[in-house]
Amino acid sequence: MAPDEPAMTRFPVPDYEDLPADLRERIDEETERAGFTPNVFLAYAYHPAQFRAFFAYYDALIEDTDLEREEVEMIVVAVSGVNHCYYCNVAHGALVRIYGDDPELADQLVANYRTAEISERHRRMLDLAVKLTESMEEVEERDFERLRDVGYSEKAIWDIGSVTAFFNLSNRMAHLADMRPNGEFHTMGR
Amino acid sequence: MAPDEPAMTRFPVPDYEDLPADLRERIDEETERAGFTPNVFLAYAYHPAQFRAFFAYYDALIEDTDLEREEVEMIVVAVSGVNHCYYCNVAHGALVRIYGDDPELADQLVANYRTAEISERHRRMLDLAVKLTESMEEVEERDFERLRDVGYSEKAIWDIGSVTAFFNLSNRMAHLADMRPNGEFHTMGR
Amino acid sequence: MAPDEPAMTRFPVPDYEDLPADLRERIDEETERAGFTPNVFLAYAYHPAQFRAFFAYYDALIEDTDLEREEVEMIVVAVSGVNHCYYCNVAHGALVRIYGDDPELADQLVANYRTAEISERHRRMLDLAVKLTESMEEVEERDFERLRDVGYSEKAIWDIGSVTAFFNLSNRMAHLADMRPNGEFHTMGR
Amino acid sequence: MAPDEPAMTRFPVPDYEDLPADLRERIDEETERAGFTPNVFLAYAYHPAQFRAFFAYYDALIEDTDLEREEVEMIVVAVSGVNHCYYCNVAHGALVRIYGDDPELADQLVANYRTAEISERHRRMLDLAVKLTESMEEVEERDFERLRDVGYSEKAIWDIGSVTAFFNLSNRMAHLADMRPNGEFHTMGR
Amino acid sequence: MAPDEPAMTRFPVPDYEDLPADLRERIDEETERAGFTPNVFLAYAYHPAQFRAFFAYYDALIEDTDLEREEVEMIVVAVSGVNHCYYCNVAHGALVRIYGDDPELADQLVANYRTAEISERHRRMLDLAVKLTESMEEVEERDFERLRDVGYSEKAIWDIGSVTAFFNLSNRMAHLADMRPNGEFHTMGR
Amino acid sequence: MAPDEPAMTRFPVPDYEDLPADLRERIDEETERAGFTPNVFLAYAYHPAQFRAFFAYYDALIEDTDLEREEVEMIVVAVSGVNHCYYCNVAHGALVRIYGDDPELADQLVANYRTAEISERHRRMLDLAVKLTESMEEVEERDFERLRDVGYSEKAIWDIGSVTAFFNLSNRMAHLADMRPNGEFHTMGR
Asked: Which residue from A85, A139, A175 is facing B175, i.e. has the nearest CB?
């Protein structure tokens, strides 16, 4: 995207100066970490109360988890791929490349996680994530067994489900608002 | 459900006594308000950090919104209906009956929101909610126009989308964990 | 529904007085049995010849069958749930509660039969009913085997299929005509 | 099919001699009319009570209707085509060729009713039939208006729906039992 | 179709006299072989460069293959059936009847290949063809194993895939252009 | 992919030295043009007769067309996106970036063509391409009108359809064989 394009097109992006102090603080931290301000922070600031809850949830997902960070991001991209979410494919695609230390994995997961060069263990992790996304009503005990059989703990299975569920929220908000991924994400980690 | 049935069947329900104080406090409040402890609070307590974020998000949805509470619950039940979520159909079905002051509306929304006796304005609200749930990738500008034309503000449209997105998370967690609605919910408001 | 609401909204409901004697007789019997006139009888009276055939078929399904009445009603509600049929969900939901002697079973079956607290035998019965409803072209010999393995007779399997097939007719007529369930059905057996 | 092949493969075909007199009488009439015994009569005789109700319903559909017989059969084949029903495609395909006086219409309707060389009026009739078959929950007032606009009476619309609904029953029974169309049907009217 | 109906309705059919010599030569050969000019040749002549490539591909499929010609045509009709392609159902239906020496096989494959009277070997061949057509992203190693287990060579599996893939092209062009099958195809081989 | 990974994983990749001279010549040309050998050429060489026809068709699509090259590649990527084809997403994604002179367009089209920053004219072009891919049986006259209204010629519409149809073939062959995109494609034009 061009530097002057908005963070989302369907709602007005609030001015940084007008935001509550805690939102500005979080945005500053993210900007310092990434070297630019990921647009999801500017977009979600449209609704400060939801901003706080949304990122608190995201923090809980990556800070208190039995999954590796690489696993979290693999789930995010596989889910965003089947949900056709442009923002999440691109922004979390960059994170998959970085945390997975693999320049091609994101493109594989966006297209079809079944074509990805991943372990059987990770394949089963993504089987649950995609099934819970596409046909949740069919998830049953045997889906849990397939994960236990490759060593995922009970808590890890909850976490696989939680990341999947949260990005079924995120994908819908990103698409609703037409959030646009920062240009930087397209090339990070390639 | 029988009084001694667990709040969910696929993960162990934590003991109230072992929970962090802030979770116990929230559970106490909910129990006092409802006259019983809605099982979603016991189930989500499996993961305290997610418990906090989940209910903070829910609070943000119902406390800082341009929608009527009745509208929020109508969206929840229409979304849960198409997602085939037993817990949310029943628990929020009770809330629709109460906030909508209509003993039959929940059964209509669970079955097929198109058969519900609702206003054109609410019909369009649910059209967006169900489309964002079932085929999010097709949501476009014209879906926004249909809502503006019946008087929904920009913020209200964000809120319709947010409630929809959040229950696409909730439905998946409730189904994953096989949360069981309290017996009370089946009859409240009928 | 309010007492003065019509039995269906898309076709005129005939006057009882104008109906042929045999239809009046059947309606009288049903009214006496239930304590009110289930709206499907008033609605189907729009077409007397079809009324006769429709209820003759229904009688054959419940009078000459290898299934328990509870099983018949479980199939009806599971099928009506996936077909999103408001009238049948509610009217036969009441019958499931009564014949199954379970106040929560109907809500489980309407939402997702996979979440219902039922035996493995009944689970397989509903697997066939839902598959024959949603993707009939894939029903094959192995679906029969799964039922024989839990003790269903050949005739019982025909009957599972017949109840399913008949409610694929009923659901469509109820939705086409927008039949409205009597208010009594919402609370019977809860 | 070879002359000695059974009328259906998944249930035993009863012996004509063992059937109740009224079934034998109906089968005799059909055999005389067609010059052979259509297999649906032999198959349905497996369950005499359902045989009576099934054919009483069918008789009501074609004897007390505001539709032309050609229209009834067009609906049957379009519905059976989308339901992938081999028996009904072939048996009623023959009837479409005969009543429609068109040797190619059945193959068009089986493949895709949108490619059939039919009037706008009939196109709309089949639009409702296919929509009520594939996504009944979306049928609404505007679908009725499209039919009224091309002159269909209220009763004719009920009848379009009834034929559609009945063949959603028939297709499922024919597929369940694996009914096999008589060889004669493949070539009649070509 | 009537003798004066066009080969397709959505694009103008070129005059034979105006065609390049090599197209006229191919058309002459096909006309001599069949006794009439199959409409796909007249329709594809709209774009001579594509005509050459299309029929070169088709020739490669039937001349350099590990499949029997009957197998090729079975795949074509099963694929065209699920793709709802009128032209291919009818034109290749005739070829299935002739090469398979079976007057009913085409109607079975058009309706639902699972109802066809074919060997287990051919059933698995069509399982891959239909899966690659309807949900290609799910084709995996185990689909290959099922074919190897019944004796298909590696090259034969490629060929099953190639015929399937090519008719996913052909079906789309035939439907786009609304190609109309010659009247002769409807009755050949019955 | 690592330099020593094969061009496809489900069939053996032939040795260049063993290929017929005309295939080697074509491969040499492509290698010189791109600076590396795109894997589709090595993979398709498994079947030389199909190699010739496949690339002859592709050449016809890009050499004798009323579409801009950028438009051809946009169609390819939008179609490959909905078909979940990893090879085509990545290889033609590179071509979209180059011919469209836009480093982000490919990621937009892979995710959801409705989110792409393209003209109304191109939007309608892709509407047809995606509809012909996902639900070809519903393509009708009005889809043509929408394209004529923005200035596409009759021949251009045929060409939009042809590119779409051809990549419904290509996507299936690439997925069947599990063709792997060359590493170079992931970064070209970014």
From this structure: A139
